[in-house]
Design goal:
It is a single chain. By secondary structure, the protein is an alpha+beta fold. Helices cover about 30% and strands about 20% of the residues. It contains 3 helices and 3 strands; from the N terminus they run αααβββ.
């Protein structure tokens, strides 16, 4: 949940540099559009399973401003 942290991207990269090499690859999976940890976990699990996942998709003409995840352009997921 990078969006709600006071850390700037370069601060986050510095912090990740302290991690073991096996964990540093996780930085590539961060997405500042995510609004919750559960949303990030769901996205990563879906992507690992081979699905294409769009994040924070705008939905016109509904009560929702955005949908957390849209899987394969068909399934809306709110986390």
């Amino acid at each position: 949940m990078v969006r709600r942290t006071p850390m700037a991207p370069h601060d986050l990269e510095f912090a990740v540099a302290e991690l073991p090499m096996s964990r540093r690859r996780l930085l590539r999976r961060l997405d500042e559009r995510a609004e919750s940890g559960s949303e990030s976990i769901a996205r990563c699990l879906l992507e690992d399973a081979g699905f294409r996942v769009d994040i924070q998709v705008r939905v016109p003409f509904t009560d929702l401003d955005r949908i957390d995840l849209v899987v394969e352009g068909r399934i809306a997921v709110e986390c």
